[in-house]
Amino acid sequence: MYLTNKYTRWYYSIIDNSKTRILPKETYTEKHHIVPRSMGGNNDISNLAILTAREHYLCHYLLTKITTGIDKVKMFCALRFLNANNRKSSRVYEYIKVNLHRGPLSELVKQKISNTMKGRPAKNKGVKYPFIPRKKWADDRLVGVGSNGKLKGKVRPRLDCPHCHKNIDEANYHRYHGAKCKSI
Q: pLDDT per residue over 29-81, tens digit each?
């Protein structure tokens, strides 16, 4: 299942260490699937390890080094989710998790959150966003502007400069040519 390399040894060393140690109750911990569920692992006690935040991050990093093919892609996705706020190292990840951890919510707090959220539509469920057509200018000549900024099927009006007698596009005339000729 996993490649045989130094990273595999490091991975199992962290897992084995977590199974034999006893952490103080106030230590922030995370559950980790030894064989990830996306690779056929399950939620049995034998497949779970209790890791510190730093160990958990390191294990996911090591999983990217000891898998191949589609499993490697899945492990990179899992690592990306852990690294969602662009944390650069396992120490930074641990620091954020430990300092943000406030323990489980009390039943009273859970009930207040539940009452607040009742009746609200879920952010990602059943919302149909209306189609908003591209804004069209009131001026006829700007309708049909393509992605490259050129007009499609429309021709801009052209003006004759009274000073130099050149026939110029109206937009360019007012912006550049008219200022040079001083005849506007």
A: 999 999 999 999 999 999 999 999 899 999 998 998 899 888 888 888 888 88
Tell me the whole-structure pTM to 2 decimals.
Answer: 0.53
What's the CA gap between 44 and 41, in Å, rounded? Answer: 9
Domain contains 111: no
Say whether both 10 and 97 belong to one domain: yes
Q: Does 98 share its domain with 19?
A: yes
In this structure, which amino acid lies at residue 144? Answer: G
Q: Are residues 36 and 90 in the same domain?
A: yes
**Token pair recorded at residue 64:** 């990217």
Domain membership of residue 29 as a residue range: 6-103
Question: What is the pLDDT, as a whole number, of residue 143?
Answer: 46
Q: Are the CB atoms for 75 and 60 separated by under 8 Å?
A: yes
Based on the domain organization, do 18 and 71 belong to the same domain? yes
- pLDDT given at position 80: 80
Average pLDDT, the chain: 78
Count: domains in the chain? 2
Give the SS3 label for residue 30.
strand
b/e per residue 18-39 (b: at least 16 CB within 10 A): beeeeeeeeeebbebbbebeee
List all residues 6 or more positions away from 114 whose beta carbon is below 8 Å from its beta carbon.
none
